[in-house]
Amino acid sequence: MPVKARESSPALNIRIKSGHRRLIERAAKELDQSVSEFVRDAAVREAQHTLADQTTFHIDDKTWEKFIVALDAPTKDNPRLRDLMSREPAWKD
């Protein structure tokens, strides 16, 4: 069976200041990554973060009304949630 050649990804070229490049190289080395891997991963994370903030939901009027009713309804007691919210957050240690 013939081995399928690996498709290459299209290149993304950017120009950056030499100081920024040195910073990126140091950070990539710290994570034991190539500069390409580091920049790709950082760019993808930032793109996902940017798009997550831009997400909209399209619903019909009937669904919207149900949503508003659910938001306006009084909360139900949830002992597990109450317990969780009473704890000191892990990041405050």
Task: Count all strands and give the number.
Answer: 0
Q: Helix content range of the residues, please?
A: 55-70%
Give the overall shape: flat
Q: What class would the helix/strand composition place it in?
A: mainly alpha
Distance between the termini: 57 Å
Task: Provide the β-strand percentage band.
Answer: under 5%
The residue ranges in which pLDDT falls below 50 over 5 or more consecutive positions are none
What radius of gyration results from the CA coordinates? 24 Å
What's the pLDDT, averaged over the residues? 90
Number of helices: 4
Counted up, domains total 1
What order do the helices and strands follow?
Answer: HHHH
Largest sheet report: none
Helices and strands in order, then pairings?
Blueprint: H1 18-30, H2 35-53, H3 61-72, H4 79-86
Helix pairs in contact: 1-2
Task: Write out key terms for the chains shown.
single chain, 93 residues, mainly alpha, 4 helices
Task: Walk me through this protein's architecture.
With 93 residues, the protein is mostly helical. It has one domain. The chain is 56% helix and 0% strand. It contains four helices and no strands. The N and C termini lie far apart (57 Å).
